[in-house]
Amino acid sequence: MSFKLKKGFTLIELLIVIAILGTLAVVVLIALNPVQQLARTRDAGRRSTVSQLGHAVEARATGNNGVYVTAAAAWVTGLVNAGEIASVPQNPTYSAPGVGSHPQGADCSVNAEGDFCYSTSAAPASRAIVFARLESAAENEKCGASQAAWAVYSTANSGAGIFCNDGSAPAVPGVGGYTGSTWIQ
């Protein structure tokens, strides 16, 4: 009687390898946290767009004797009509901790076009801000407990940054208070 030695893996060996690969896949998935990766990606886009809109507002003011675009519901359309930007950008829907999922512009009390917020000092506007709420845990952790992170372009500061406050829309510098608020560059 002759026995042939069969080459290959046993069922037990295959099951052990599959279990190890499955465990590694779960560990990698948890470590990468794809939901937060996507939130950080959207936040990077928001920060970039807020900065670009802020620069467009500054450019428009330069050509308009230092007077900023009127704080109205169609403020971005005014920038498009003036040739400062090509089209109205759209801010994606987001889900912020403790807020749930809603359109970005829901954080604006007034002047949300393209779901980006805009506010100016009293007429004639000599200062302005463009802002949007950030959603990623990484950005919000930069702020204190129970504070919200905002991407803000401030003409008074001549630049963009992250602004932390109690969650209410940021105020124009020099108009309203910055009590309990922090700029993070």
Strand order of the largest sheet: 3-4-5-6-7-8
Main sheet: strands, sense, barrel: 6 strands, antiparallel
DSSP strand tally:
8
Inertia-based shape: elongated
Total of helices: 4
What structural category arises from helix and sheet content?
Answer: alpha+beta
Provide the β-strand percentage band: 15-25%
What integer value in Å does the Rg equal? Answer: 25 Å
Spatial separation of the terminal alpha carbons: 81 Å
Runs with pLDDT <50, length 5+? 175-180
How many distinct folded domains?
1
Task: Average the pLDDT over all residues and give the rounded result.
Answer: 81
Query: Could you give the order of the helices and strands?
Result: HHHEEEEEHEEE
Helical content band:
25-40%
Organism: Candidatus Woesebacteria bacterium RIFCSPHIGHO2_01_FULL_44_21
Transmembrane segments: 12-32
Keywords: Membrane, Transmembrane, Transmembrane helix
Protein name: Type II secretion system protein GspG C-terminal domain-containing protein
